[in-house]
């Protein structure tokens, strides 16, 4: 194998692929990139067995071939070089690698490409194509609500439902839940669902931004995510997602409409005075006014603020974890938000105020209250 | 678990018991997902193409998989593990590393705990499990395969060196077929052969793999058991090579451990309301003392002063110590009970 390439183009691609590389003393081959050259195209693969990233780069190749290359040393070298053409060559034994820059030569030992794990085969897949920004947006809006409790495996990922002409992303940690739905241009021949792991989504979010469209192909074990000249293969979370629809209240009669920014800033101030274990704030809602208060009996700290709002419903008092509300209000983008409530022990629904069922984008968040100790 | 999927099928379908069965597709491109021990006698292995399996064992019975059932059994088994420790690192549906250095029943013997877990699994699921007990993950994993099925293998610290010598290189976790061939090409067939090489020689021959092999063959596998459960406490403890005698020595050690604990908590942004101290005299009597604060603490001075204060109040003033542990509990990462949950 022997090829020449611009060091910065090379580095850019390797950085994309490096997302799937983690230190792995047990299987050192997983600390490598797999290089494969054919017809002046270099295919770079990396894997942590959960997620595989495959990306392509045009190079000027004198000889084809395959080799596994230690990722860290190669990345470190390229990061330390100003942009310039460099040459990558493998010796006759197929294991010694020599890099040549304007400044000199760098040698490192490659590994046997046959030891590199095979990429899962794309078999029996269904497809859906969507705008890259929709996927990025869906990830941004849901990822924060996933659980980190490995005992409830399903909830550690984001649930994706493809349903003919809509795609739905759901995440929950049993305390809060986000449902993001998108319809425009969605066209699937089937209805299906799968759970994508959090780590893979974080990787996708970071690299998908500059692309226009993304194609998702999925079967029962993997999802293949294609964008630009990059493919990511993610092993799906093998678990049954809880029936989230069952916990979305259909009738929350008490409707609070309020400025999102005012609500969020007030919560941030009041939260300073809340008990640090519960982060509990109390919302007291009357016609036209919302009183937010908190107290920490341990320190005799307490705070109260009053905000104006639009409210229709019975006057009520309900407790929430301020951190959850602040986080969720940060995810919403509209000027005003609607908080639909029923009783102090039932979930509240938080939504953008001017959202209708016919919008191509639909966002709904649920949050469970904190029980008030009288 | 022993022949996990296949055993579940034999448990649920008595007519399959004692017969060679394979879980998986019988079709042209199907592969064996799991083979019963009866089938293994014929050379049937998991991941083997079904067609080949059928050649090796013509009366092999193929059973379609029921992943939902395996998953729920897997969950049952994990729940049993969690009765003993929160430090459970699942490797797959039917395999996990458990760190029982500190365990919930507070039992000194890891062997006893392994036997208890195996017994409970059998009682609860009617399935047999095998366990390996040793000083690190590498050895525990290798040991767990030795007395399969329904067996326990212990590799005591004093046995490690001899055990390593006789271990065939194929048994090293992380060494596959290709690597095994490369090792054999160098006439390395057992641990004893590996032990003859220096670190530098092994790295020259096999790169990173060489370093890994060198470390494990000398018993240096320090990988921790990674559990992803929500932690309820954060602690660190040390057993000393020579017992600590004087107050100065002991306090210096306590402060050193506090610094370590403080650094690792700070990295993770974890704070705690309760500070715990544990110490053990040379005769193994063990004491624990705790002090709770109103607020979440992560201040090193407070930690060191509290821990030393707890110690001075509890120490008999003369006995030497073989172990000290420091920890935080009531962490800021815990979810309080008053936080309601969705009824999933």
What layout of secondary structure does this protein have?
The complex is a heterodimer of chains A (374) and B (344).
Chain A: E1 2-6, H1 7-17, E2 32-38, E3 41-47, E4 51-58, E5 60-63, E6 65-70, H2 71-79, E7 85-90, E8 96-100, E9 105-109, E10 126-131, H3 132-142, E11 157-163, E12 166-172, E13 176-182, E14 191-197, H4 198-207, E15 213-218, E16 222-227, E17 230-235, E18 254-259, H5 260-271, E19 280-286, E20 289-296, E21 301-308, E22 310-312, E23 316-321, H6 322-331, E24 336-341, E25 348-352, E26 361-367
Antiparallel strand pairs in A: 1-5, 1-7, 2-3, 2-6, 3-4, 4-17, 7-8, 8-9, 10-15, 11-12, 11-14, 12-13, 13-26, 15-16, 16-17, 18-22, 18-24, 19-20, 19-23, 20-21, 24-25, 25-26
Helix pairs in contact in A: 1-2, 3-4, 5-6
Chain B: H1 4-12, E1 21-24, E2 32-35, H2 37-40, H3 50-56, E3 61-63, H4 67-82, E4 88-92, E5 95-98, H5 110-125, E6 131-133, H6 137-146, E7 152-154, H7 160-166, H8 177-185, H9 191-195, H10 199-206, H11 208-217, E8 233-244, H12 247-268, E9 272-281, E10 286-297, H13 300-314, E11 321-331
What does this structure look like?
The complex is a heterodimer of chains A (about 375) and B (about 350). With about 375 residues, chain A is an alpha+beta fold. Chain A has three domains: about 1-115, Roll (DNA Polymerase III, Chain A, domain 2), CATH 3.10.150; about 125-245, DNA Polymerase III, Chain A, domain 2, CATH 3.10.150.10; about 250-365, DNA Polymerase III, Chain A, domain 2 (Roll). In chain A, about 15% of the residues lie in helices and about 45% in strands. Chain A has six helices and 26 strands. In chain A, the strands form four sheets. Chain A has a nine-stranded antiparallel sheet with strand order 14-11-12-13-26-25-24-18-22. Chain A has an eight-stranded antiparallel sheet with strand order 6-2-3-4-17-16-15-10. Chain A has a five-stranded antiparallel sheet with strand order 5-1-7-8-9. In chain A, strand 3 and strand 4 form a beta hairpin. In chain A, helix 3 crosses helix 4 (about 200-205). The termini of chain A are far apart. The model of chain A has no long low-confidence stretch (mean pLDDT about 95). Chain B has four domains: about 5-65, MutS, DNA mismatch repair protein, domain I; about 70-155, 2-Layer Sandwich (Alpha-Beta Plaits); about 170-215, DNA polymerase, domain 1 (Orthogonal Bundle); about 235-330, Dna Ligase, domain 1, CATH 3.30.1490. Chain B has a four-stranded antiparallel sheet, with helices on one face. A three-stranded mixed sheet of chain B has the order 2-1-3. In chain B, helix 4 runs antiparallel to helix 5 (about 110-125), helix 10 (about 200-205) runs antiparallel to helix 11 (about 210-215) and helix 12 (about 245-270) packs antiparallel against helix 13. The interface of A and B includes residues 27, 28, 172, 243 and 366 of A.
